From TrEMBL:
This protein's record includes keyword Repeat: yes
InterPro entries: PPR_rpt, TPR-like_helical_dom_sf
Name by which UniProt lists this protein: Pentatricopeptide repeat-containing protein
Keyword tags: Repeat, Transit peptide
Record organism: Urochloa decumbens
Keyword Transit peptide recorded: yes
Stretches forming PPR repeats: 127-161, 195-229, 230-264, 265-299, 300-334, 335-369, 412-446
Organism placement in taxonomy: Eukaryota, Viridiplantae, Streptophyta, Embryophyta, Tracheophyta
Family: Belongs to the PPR family. P subfamily.
Domain of life: Eukaryota
Amino acid sequence: MPPANPRPNKWPKTLTSDHLHRLVRAERDPRRALELFDAATAAAASAPDPIAPSPATVSLLTSRLASAGHLPLATSLLSRSRGLFPSAAELEAPFLTLLRAFSRTHRPLAALHLFRSAPSDLALPHSARSYTAVLAALVAHSQLHLARSLLADMRAAGFAPTAATYNVLLKAHCSDAATPIEDAVRIFRKIPKPDACSYNTIIDGLCRRGRLDEALELFSEMVGKRIAPTVVTYTTVIRWLAREGCFDDALKTFDEMGRRGISPNLVTYSSLIDGLCKGGRSTSALELLDRMIKEKLLPNTIVYSSVIDGLCKEHRLSEAMEVLDRMCLQGRKPDAGLFGKLIVGLCDAGRAVEAANYLDEMVLAGIEPNRLTWSLHSRINNTVLTALCTKGELGRAFQVYQSTRSRSISTEPTTFHLLVESFSKKNKLERAAHVVLDMLSERCIPERETWDVIISGYWGKKKVRQEAEEIWNQITVDLIT
């Protein structure tokens, strides 16, 4: 198959920097884009009126190479680009791009090394922006001791922290659980002109430390200073109000958000719905679920799981089943955890057969146990088996048991015993013996009570008892003679 964007055989007679930028952007493979860039710059260098690629092109290509994991190529490109621009300052944009790319690819120490070597390797002096970019990388990856050292270097170099620098420091103090939140508040108060990002960070930090009242005061202060709250601000406040059980305040804040023309996102809805469901306010959660769909913001599995869990806890199982059906109609695939909530709820309500039917539906949907969900699947199946035995639905219980065994899902010893006891009492001794053999194959040694149940069941059969008595009598005669 030919490549999607083949390299042109001939470059245009007048190759412009804009044209080169479009060609590089159109090539999806970053390595091929680099080859194209090198070929184009070589062709341009031999032209009568040579052109240099723009810093934006170098930034784009540097970022794409780094994001694809080609970090040495990205660094080499930046180094080679030093001679393409009249001033080293024009390298700062792609340089910052590469620093941020190192951070995105979880290489904060590489970003720090590149920053340290910039004056010698790239003839690019440090700036407040580059200091801030490296600080952000270190903070994002919890390298807080290095971030503090770099901040000291920044001040020693004569660079006053900018608003962006303060925001990075604020995030560092708020994300470090060992750092007193008062330190973060002091940094916040030092910011000459805090912006929405500053407020968002300190509000979230206070909420995480259980200081919701202080966070709400800062939220009011933010509004009073005419700093427009963002969707992040509102989502943070709503989430923590809901977590603290302040549901009416959370709903009022949600409505205020809409009046200000800020559209809630999926995280906003998810946070509020989850809090409402955990607080026994599933009716309000259902209203929000309908509102989401009307606004064409499709709920994800997490949202549906919260609603179904809340409805099950309030014993509104029919509505929970309707929500599950709605979820499937919208193309969302329930996972084992979501099915489990509904199945356990049905079992608790004594609706064991319906629970078993949902267990079958779960199997038909191809939701099989893996390393992470094995214990969950085992718990769900054992719960259904226990409920079916308790309700006397032994035929259905044996079907579920066989399905469980065919999928290698382990059965708990108490469930084994209950199955043996239930089958023996109903004179289904072959099935009881089958379960005992399965127990032994799993090296699950039956308790004495389990043996007593099945032996008593067999002994209760008249034919078995007669045969045993005849054998015993024959043994006695043989011993006497």
